[in-house]
Design a protein that fits this description.
Layout: E1 7-10, E2 16-21, H1 27-37, H2 48-51, H3 56-68, E3 72-79, E4 82-91, E5 100-107, H4 116-128, E6 136-142, H5 146-154, E7 158-168, E8 174-183
Parallel strand pairs: 5-6
Antiparallel strand pairs: 1-2, 2-3, 3-4, 4-5, 6-8, 7-8
Length: 188
């Protein structure tokens, strides 16, 4: 686990949010938070249906893997004892890509637009910069997710690829995929 200390951040509306590692004892809370986030998050690859197949045991395995891997991080945002945001990264295991890590992030709909996503991502970048041999963070974002795309650009991610009609939404419409990358050595 790359993350060791808790951080408290203030949202735009003054809420104090704790950014910290996820604990195995919170597996059920994390699963419930994810199930709350999904119905209002059309830009996450998981769906409400796929989340229904997740169990507390699968969450325990995910948290354990993230906490035991020195090149991974699973950060939660907690407000008044409630998980309201999640971000994670994991370096690729194969030697040809071990200098890269993929990331994911989601924020509860009640906390969007308050700067929480930016705080989570800044903390994840900070953690990533401490990992020996890690040079790039990469992600994929649906082109319709304009807010996230703007945030990633603001924090220094560059668009490195684009795939048309990459995702089919539940309503049958398609959205494109934007592949983005952040060079950790180019950041102060």
């Amino acid at each position: 686990m790359a993350l060791h200390e808790n951080r408290t951040v203030q949202t735009k509306n003054g809420d104090s949010i704790i950014l910290r590692p996820a604990l195995v004892t919170e597996a059920e809370d994390l699963l419930n938070a994810f199930k709350e986030i999904l119905p209002t998050s059309p830009y996450i690859l998981s769906t409400v249906e796929s989340a229904a197949t997740k169990t507390v045991e699968t969450q325990v395995k995910w948290i354990t893997a993230a906490n035991e891997d020195p090149r991974s991080a699973l950060i939660i945002a907690e407000h008044q004892g409630r998980i309201v945001g999640i971000t994670n990264m994991a370096a690729f295991k194969d030697s040809k890509r071990s200098h890269r890590a993929g990331l994911g992030m989601s924020v509860h709909h009640d906390y969007r637009g308050r700067g929480l996503g930016e705080a989570l991502l800044r903390r994840l970048i900070e953690v990533a910069q401490t990992l020996e041999g890690l040079r790039f963070l990469e992600l994929n974002v649906m082109s319709a997710n304009k807010t996230a795309h703007r945030l990633y650009l603001k924090l220094g991610f560059k668009q490195i690829g684009y795939q048309e009609l990459a995702y089919r939404q539940p309503d049958g419409t398609f959205t494109d995929d934007i592949c983005m990358c952040l060079d950790l050595t180019a950041r102060p």
